[in-house]
Amino acid sequence: MAGRLRAYTRRSIMTGLSGTFRSGDRARQQIALLVFFLLIVGLAIIIPSNATSADQNPIQNSKLSQKGRSLIVQVRTVQEVNLSKLDRRPDFARANHRYLCLQMNPRGGTTIVRICFGGGKRTYRVLGVSRTSETGKVRSSKVIPAEVKKVDGLKLVATFDPRDAGLPPGNYAWRVASHSGSCPQSGPLEKPDEDCVDYFPPKHRAVYDLRPVRAVGCTGGNGEFVTHGPRGRKRVALTFDDGPSDYTPDVLRILKRKKAKATFFMLGQQVSSYPTYARRVLALGHEVANHSYDHPLLPSGSNIRRANRRIIQVTGFRPCLFRPPYGAVSSSLKADVRAARMKVVNWDVDTSDWKLPGAGSIASTIVHQVRPGSIVLMHDGGGPRGGTVDALSSAISGLRDRGYRLVTVSQLLGNRIIYRPVR
After folding, report:
1. What is the mean pLDDT of residues 88-104?
2. Which of 241, 242, 336, 353 is labelled catalytic?
3. pLDDT band at 6 (very low <50, low <70, confident <90, very high)
4. Beta strands of 117-261 (E only): which ranges?
5. In the chain, where are the structural domains located?
6. 380 carries an active-site annotation
7. Can 379 be counted among the known catalytic residues?
8. Which candidate in 242, 286, 379, 380 is catalytic?
9. CB-based contacts of 356: which residues, under 8 Å, 6+ apart?
10. pLDDT in tens, 276-287
11. What pTM was computed for the model?
């Protein structure tokens, strides 16, 4: 009996000690959990609310749209981006390049066109364009003109001509890619460079149908009479009268090579004779305008309307600019032009190329008489125009050397071309 009592007493003591040990463990665990919780709360207070984790996508959303000939990309980021710190022509195979790029991949193609923000100079006036393989190997790169804006600090909007980026109309897979420029290449945090790129959409590429468009008209046809544009900016409009003719393709070839735009005041009868050239002018991004049907002095309203109808029938474009033959105007002519919803446009620099003074004289007149906002008169029809053709290249170079930008008359006057999708 005494033995059983001693055994029972030892078991009770051991059980009590064990319970004491388990209670101590639970207390220590609870204290540890409390300390951990307080640490997390403290960190939450210390870290700013706009901080992002390494795994958070810095691109909140993105959108593509078309307006006229322009393609518009909008990117909203989680934090404000310093564009000047981005590389607009990065080496996509290296881990230390920081970039933010729209990636456009023609459906079924293997080339990716990457249009990138950034650069230390002309940050808001140009974009970088790189054509790469799917692995990121750069095949070619260049800079294209663009309009880049920041909205409310977090939204970037870039507007550019897709033709400048080598993007013809068609179906594309696209997304926006962002690289911070810091990707661990060694040590315990090492990871492949592709894992350091963030995308939007994050899981797949979106699809966009880049539509072909055509110019159908322009704004500003208010009957106003002008001889030049605003004098505040170094812009100039080259204009050609009396075409199209056999000289028009040579003029277009030089303008294309020099990447310059011009305005062609066409005669309705010449449009009938050279319809292909008239359409070519428009297709190359130049402006088509009305110069009457058959070049009479002070043409009637019916003559002006007849020229307009012929231009529209051949090119699909309704002019908003009219230049009177010989520059002659009257109150009735102005009223007729206003009724036809056009503007009367003469000039302030006359090359007198119709007098055949020679290429050197024509180029010199342009370069030395032009002022900011000038409208220059030349001819691509109505007689032998070899001198005008020969003068054109050096005249354009001379203007650019003096800081001038060549634009169409509508651009010079602040009007715009109206575009419609091709059906």
Report:
1. 88
2. 241
3. very low
4. 126-132, 138-145, 147-151, 155-160, 170-179, 197-200, 206-210, 213-218, 225-226, 235-243
5. 59-210, 215-421
6. no
7. yes
8. 379
9. 383, 384, 387
10. 999 999 999 999
11. 0.76
